[in-house]
């Protein structure tokens, strides 16, 4: 894409009320637009990142047999009364229309997905099933000060699995641990993300959170580097340590962001909706469930928090809006033609290129913008390099540039 055509521009300042690093950088670089506290729109660069993250997650969900659906954001009040959450969930948005009919604005989808399954599945032959969606969620977050780490409207992947036996559930749950590790590896934060034992709520002993170490995190975890796991401070006590075989003196305390979690739901939601199956002998049993969430917007914010430097964002190759930032410092018409030509040839090779073809912008400004936007690789073409039929290549994470001939580059 030609940068001269990109309708967004970089900004020197973020909105004065924005305190988080992720939102400041993403707004200044033109990835997102702030609508109000905790609510952001995705602009062309931001949407490209979001789509890449989506596709990585989608492939991983499809690989474990997940079936993608898209559930409604408006959810019937009756369903929420059935699970008792209409009154118990503090962050639920309740919306009413002019006839005073109330609905919930979906913060999560157990109340929708279970009745859907009940419509179609009732025999042991119909299970196991896993469905997922990537969709906007709404939560009345009180502390919406962390940019896209904690939105009032945000984007989540939520998967729900349905099983006829504890063993089948456990097998799937174990698989999901590996799937999650693979996702965080692929988006570039694998090395700083720990599977973390957290309290499992009413029903199971532990749930598993995936926590990324960064100072911006609201959570505190204790990491065992050797075992490559952590414990959330909220569950930290001698009994837990003993049951996990961890030694207090080996643990490192750290701030972290919860980028995803997986939960054993047992029959918490299948029971109120009577989601059950008949076995081979014709006997009826309640379905066992698991749920598996990842906040996509939070994940993007986490990447920014964890990897950015004082010049701006640093995107991992896998989720960068473009792979290459082609920065042209040429002003002469004949030179511009040559750079245009290189841009076209890179595109023909299937490379994703943001081409800074802007005229009348100083080199220093172009480099500062390029650092702020954060593409992993920069190609700089000036009249000087062009005279030698070459370009300067610089990685966003390195300070030294390399000169390479255009021929070699295109090979
Ligand atoms: P938290 O403790 O941070 O509020 P949660 O326990 O409410 O998270 P879940 O309901 O399990 O989170 O949601 C699944 C995932 O969705 C979380 O792991 C997180 O990545 C993401 N998420 C939750 N709330 C938000 C939010 N307000 N903004 C962005 N992402 C969120
Ligand atoms: Mg929450």
From TrEMBL:
<dbReference type="GO" id="GO:0005829">
    <property type="term" value="C:cytosol"/>
</dbReference>
<dbReference type="InterPro" id="IPR002314">
    <property type="entry name" value="aa-tRNA-synt_IIb"/>
</dbReference>
<keyword id="KW-0648">Protein biosynthesis</keyword>
<dbReference type="InterPro" id="IPR050062">
    <property type="entry name" value="Pro-tRNA_synthetase"/>
</dbReference>
<dbReference type="InterPro" id="IPR045864">
    <property type="entry name" value="aa-tRNA-synth_II/BPL/LPL"/>
</dbReference>
<dbReference type="InterPro" id="IPR044140">
    <property type="entry name" value="ProRS_anticodon_short"/>
</dbReference>
<dbReference type="GO" id="GO:0004827">
    <property type="term" value="F:proline-tRNA ligase activity"/>
</dbReference>
<keyword id="KW-0067">ATP-binding</keyword>
<keyword id="KW-0030">Aminoacyl-tRNA synthetase</keyword>
<keyword id="KW-0436">Ligase</keyword>
<dbReference type="InterPro" id="IPR036621">
    <property type="entry name" value="Anticodon-bd_dom_sf"/>
</dbReference>
<dbReference type="Pfam" id="PF00587">
    <property type="entry name" value="tRNA-synt_2b"/>
</dbReference>
<dbReference type="Pfam" id="PF03129">
    <property type="entry name" value="HGTP_anticodon"/>
</dbReference>
<keyword id="KW-0547">Nucleotide-binding</keyword>
<dbReference type="InterPro" id="IPR004154">
    <property type="entry name" value="Anticodon-bd"/>
</dbReference>
<protein>
    <recommendedName>
        <fullName>Proline--tRNA ligase</fullName>
        <ecNumber>6.1.1.15</ecNumber>
    </recommendedName>
</protein>
<dbReference type="GO" id="GO:0005524">
    <property type="term" value="F:ATP binding"/>
</dbReference>
<dbReference type="InterPro" id="IPR002316">
    <property type="entry name" value="Pro-tRNA-ligase_IIa"/>
</dbReference>
<feature type="domain" description="Aminoacyl-transfer RNA synthetases class-II family profile">
    <location>
        <begin position="38"/>
        <end position="316"/>
    </location>
</feature>
<dbReference type="InterPro" id="IPR006195">
    <property type="entry name" value="aa-tRNA-synth_II"/>
</dbReference>
<dbReference type="GO" id="GO:0006433">
    <property type="term" value="P:prolyl-tRNA aminoacylation"/>
</dbReference>
């Amino acid at each position: 894409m030609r940068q001269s055509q990109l309708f967004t521009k970089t900004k020197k300042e973020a909105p004065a009320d924005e305190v988080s690093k992720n939102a400041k950088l993403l707004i200044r670089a033109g990835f997102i637009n702030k609508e109000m506290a905790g609510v952001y729109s995705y602009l062309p660069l931001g949407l490209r990142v979001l789509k890449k993250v989506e596709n990585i997650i989608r492939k991983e969900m499809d690989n474990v047999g997940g079936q993608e659906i898209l559930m409604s954001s408006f959810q019937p009040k009756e369903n929420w009364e059935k699970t008792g959450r209409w009154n118990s969930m503090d962050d639920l948005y309740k919306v009413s229309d002019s006839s005073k009919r109330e609905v919930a604005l979906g913060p999560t989808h157990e109340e929708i997905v279970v009745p859907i399954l009940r419509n179609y599945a009732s025999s042991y032959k119909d299970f196991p099933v896993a469905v997922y969606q990537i969709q906007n969620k709404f939560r009345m977050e009180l502390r919406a000060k962390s940019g896209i780490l904690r939105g009032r409207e945000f984007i989540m992947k939520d998967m729900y699995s349905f099983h006829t036996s504890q063993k089948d559930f456990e097998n799937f749950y174990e698989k999901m641990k590996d799937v999650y590790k693979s996702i965080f590896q692929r988006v570039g934060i694998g090395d700083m993300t720990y599977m973390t034992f957290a309290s499992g709520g009413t029903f199971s002993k532990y749930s598993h959170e995936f926590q990324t170490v960064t100072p911006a995190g609201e959570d505190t975890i204790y990491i065992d580097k050797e075992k490559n796991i952590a414990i959330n401070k909220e569950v930290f006590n001698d009994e837990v340590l003993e049951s996990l075989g961890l030694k207090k003196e080996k643990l490192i305390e750290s701030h972290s962001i919860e980028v995803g979690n997986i939960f054993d739901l047992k029959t918490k939601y299948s029971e109120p909706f009577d989601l059950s199956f008949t076995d081979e002998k014709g006997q009826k049993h309640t379905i066992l469930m698991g749920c598996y969430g990842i906040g996509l917007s939070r994940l993007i914010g986490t990447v920014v928090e964890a990897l950015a430097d004082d010049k701006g964002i640093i995107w991992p190759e896998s989720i960068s809006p473009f792979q290459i930032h082609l920065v042209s410092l040429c002003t002469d018409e004949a030179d511009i033609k040559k750079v245009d030509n290189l841009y076209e040839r890179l595109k023909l090779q299937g490379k994703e290129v943001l081409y800074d073809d802007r005229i009348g912008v100083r080199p220093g400004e172009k480099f500062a913008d390029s650092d702020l936007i954060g593409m992993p690789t920069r190609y700089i073409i000036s009249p000087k390099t062009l005279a030698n039929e070459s370009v300067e290549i610089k990685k966003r994470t390195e300070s030294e540039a390399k000169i390479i001939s255009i021929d070699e580059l295109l090979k």
